[in-house]
Amino acid sequence: MNQVLEALQWRYAVKLFDPSKSIAEEDIHTLKSSLHLSASSYGLQPWKFLFIQNKDLREKLKAKSWNQKQVSDCSHYVVFLATKTINDEYVKNYVNLMSIIRSVPIDKLSGLHKAIYNDVVTGPRSKISQEWASRQCYIALGSLLTAAAILRVDACPMEGLDPAAYDEILQLRNTNYFTVMACALGYRSESDVLATAEKVRFPIESVIEDII
Amino acid sequence: MNQVLEALQWRYAVKLFDPSKSIAEEDIHTLKSSLHLSASSYGLQPWKFLFIQNKDLREKLKAKSWNQKQVSDCSHYVVFLATKTINDEYVKNYVNLMSIIRSVPIDKLSGLHKAIYNDVVTGPRSKISQEWASRQCYIALGSLLTAAAILRVDACPMEGLDPAAYDEILQLRNTNYFTVMACALGYRSESDVLATAEKVRFPIESVIEDII
User: Fold this and answer.
1) How many domains does chain A have?
2) What percent of chain A is helix, strand and coil (3-state, nearest 5)?
3) What residue spans of chain B are helical by DSSP H?
4) CATH number of B29's domain
5) Element (H or E) spanning A100, and its range?
6) CB under 8 Å to A59, separation ≥6 — which residues?
7) Domain for residue A162, yes or no?
């Protein structure tokens, strides 16, 4: 079995973290990079990621997460935020950045600018802006989970939380961000019985179809 | 730089695929597994993935994807489908599977069954069922992109398509699935100028915040 498959078989949604173990800086850097470098629609990165180690803050968030122990016991608790709106300034900022990074004159990017503007700022995607941004966060989550598994860092993706309460606690009201979901990162506890439980997957033939 | 970072730096959204190159069976198996084993909410796997190699079908889909050449020129074109509804039968089927795979008596899983039912079939998530299922597909997309990068298989995630037209072409009307998005897999063409373009990312400090 190859390395990617081994990692994917090894991972599971951790129920009990070992609170005494914390992730080394080098791995945290790689995990942050897996979010920073994640793919997103048009490359717009409509997101922000909070790496929360503060214990008090985590207790508050735990109370709004069905008291799931993962929030307090993991090493790093990552909250995924999406953008509330993508306006023309946001798109300009992105296109300017592209112009600088790739040394392309800004007027050569006006077609791209217009295409993004006509979709995300005023067109079809502007009507589902927050949902569209939330979906992008899930791409980043998938990247993070896979990168973590390869590094043998454990994780638990968390949808069971109250996003509005998170927004309050994280003081997001006057920002361009709102809470989508979270992911606990750290190391499994030896007493987590789920660590050795078989994966439950529908037969591969029922979820993957070849059309040749 | 470590292996994961190298892979993530290497990947980009391919504009031009080399139509003469196809992905070896062993890698296809790993890529399929990255979808099959992907995390999902409650582990419910509300999805299906079509690996399309058929040229005629791909031409039809291309016409409903802004004629983007990735659809026809890639090695395998993967269409991500989400479930239209999760009903009690679906949940029962899942819990039964868990009972069999983990050798746990079915009555020991009644609490889990009820929790899923009260959320996904009749509760909060039932009201956003299709959106919730779509988001899960994006986790699988993130896993696929990262697994592909590590295998040095190129990819292009595709949101620029007409999902309703795809549903027609793929004859999904009388099924429990609808089209969410797609991902082209294969190998970059030597003439793809984007292959060597610098990545455009906002400064890491502006998208990742440590709260210590």
Assistant:
1) 1
2) 50, 15, 30
3) 3-10, 25-36, 55-63, 70-73, 88-101, 110-116, 129-151, 163-169, 204-207
4) 3.40.109.10
5) helix A88-101
6) A72
7) yes
Inter-chain touch A199–B37, beta carbons under 8 Å: yes
Query: Contact A37/B199, CB-based, under 8 Å?
Result: yes
Q: Report pLDDT digits (tens) over B172-202.
A: 999 999 999 999 999 999 999 999 999 999 9
- Which of A97, A128, A210 would best serve as a mutation to test chain B binding (most B beta carbons within 10 A)? A210
Q: Which of residues 127-146 of B touch A (CB under 8 A)?
A: 131, 134-136, 138-146
Taking only residues 16 to 45 of chain B, the set having a beta carbon closer than 8 angstroms to any beta carbon of chain A reads 26, 30, 32-39, 41, 43, 45
The answer to whether position A212 is within a domain reads no
Dihedrals φ, ψ of B102, to 5°?
A: -100, 5
Which positions ≥6 away from A16 have C-beta within 8 Å?
A69, A70, A73, A188, A189, A191, A192, A194
| Segments of chain A with pLDDT less than 70 | 1
CB contact under 8 A, A207 and B140: no
